[in-house]
Write a structure and sequence with these properties.
Shape: rod-shaped
Helix content: 55-70%
Number of strands: 8
Number of domains: 2
Low-confidence stretches: none
Largest sheet: 8 strands, mixed
Structural class: alpha+beta
Mean pLDDT: 84
Distance between the termini: 75 Å
């Protein structure tokens, strides 16, 4: 039955909240329809025969509300029908039973009307029905002599039993209703929390942690100057020619595999990936951890660059052994000052700017297949930790001649 209710009144454009609201309204309507005959029978057995027929009179209205939802796909009529039924039914029954003294406290059930309005988020409607419930209760007490002309007095035991059942049942139903809706709210909160975690995780895949935190807390980010950062720039040799040997799908898969591995290496060495540009990859060390030494940042960057070169060498050897062509990599590394920040207001990216970025790119261009080419600035920071081969001064576009070094390996600590 509950599974069937989920399909009633559903539109393809309904949001998750709208679907849940319709489903909950139908559950309330179903509960009222099931309770009405039971309530009518109990009232009849208790001797309140005039009042016993009232719950049955509201059944057609509830069914009409459900049909209206099914046809129009709108729940407004059903919602107001439920509120009116849960308010008027106990009030009229209390009236026909002869008021508060003769008919027990059936009017307690009218409290369900503001409660239902409240749990569905209709605060103004809940206030209105709460006022009506209070006024109706006061009227029953103030004008008790008028209402006592209806119904008939029941004996003390019957009255005690009726009052006990109404109070206990009303409290129980109110609790169960609140418990159900609180569970639904908690489920919604958990879903929202899960979406927020996914959004935070996605944001951290795009931006450094401190930038993501600043963006979520203030809605904006500031640019930051980072001194003596070490930038890695990689590029695949003859990528354009090799790409013609792959299908578009194969090309994307190969690039994804390479850059995915580069991401893993960068993250493991505490570097910040900046971006990929076609077949080029750029990351930087020295901007994630405030206060770390420039030499240590440069050392981690070179260790990452060596792993990147080693990975491409391994994959290339395996591909060539299979009789397949594969590109090689050139890597340039330079240490210098950069400004880092977020670009744009939509589809923003975290980027770095400065002459050091251009130099790192030029060093990559001047490198050789499978080699790591570093500047003199970087060399002075890592010369005690890596063996390097001087290349002398090499002309660099727009920069003149620069001292460069090939990194051969790491100096053993033993």
């Amino acid at each position: 039955m509950i599974a069937i209710l989920k399909d009633i009144g559903v539109k393809a454009t309904d949001t998750r909240e709208e679907l849940q609201r319709k489903h909950n309204l139908l559950l309330v309507a179903l509960a009222c329809c099931l309770a009405a005959p039971v309530w009518a029978w109990l009232s009849y057995v208790a001797g309140l025969r005039e009042a016993a027929y009232i719950p049955l009179l509201f059944l057609p209205l509830l069914v009409a509300g459900a049909i209206s939802l099914s046809v129009s796909k709108r729940d407004t009529f059903l919602f107001h029908t439920i509120l009116a039924a849960t308010f008027l039914c106990p009030v009229v029954m209390q009236w026909l039973a002869g008021g508060l003294l003769k008919g027990g406290v059936m009017i307690l059930w009218a409290f369900l009307s503001p409660l239902v309005a409240l749990v569905f988020g209709q605060v103004k409607m809940a206030r209105l029905y709460m006022v009506l419930v209070v006024l109706a209760t006061l009227a029953m007490g103030v004008f008790s002599g008028f209402f006592e002309q209806w119904g008939h007095f029941i004996d003390k035991q019957e009255k005690l039993a009726l009052i006990t059942v109404n109070i206990a049942a009303a409290i129980l139903v109110s609790y169960l209703a609140m418990q159900y809706f609180v569970r639904q709210i908690n489920k919604g909160r958990q879903a929202i929390a899960q979406q927020e975690r996914r959004a935070d995780s996605l944001l951290l895949n795009i931006l450094p942690a401190h930038v993501a935190r600043e963006l979520t807390e203030t809605g904006k980010t500031s640019t930051t100057l980072h001194e003596n950062t070490t930038i890695i720039f990689t590029d695949f040799k003859d990528f354009t020619q090799f790409s013609e040997l792959f299908t578009p799908q194969e090309l994307i898969e190969e690039l994804a595999a390479c850059f995915g591995k580069f991401d893993e290496i960068s993250g493991r060495h505490g570097l910040e990936k900046i971006k990929t540009m076609g077949d080029a990859y750029m990351c930087v060390g020295g901007i994630q951890h405030a206060g770390e030494s420039h030499a240590y940042a440069a050392e981690r960057a070179l260790l990452a660059a060596m792993e990147m070169a080693g990975y491409i060498k391994e994959v290339r050897s395996r591909k060539l052994a299979e009789g397949r062509a594969y590109w090689d990599v050139r890597i340039g590394v330079h240490t210098g000052d950069v400004v880092a920040g977020v670009v744009g207001k939509s589809k923003f990216i975290y980027d770095i700017w400065g002459d050091a970025v251009n130099v790192a790119n030029r060093l990559q261009t001047c490198s050789e297949e499978g080699r790591i080419n570093i500047s003199d600035t970087t060399y002075r920071l890592v010369k005690d930790y890596f063996t390097c081969t001087p290349r002398g001064k090499i002309a660099v576009k727009n920069k003149g001649e620069m001292d460069m070094y090939f990194v051969d390996g790491r100096i053993s600590l033993h």
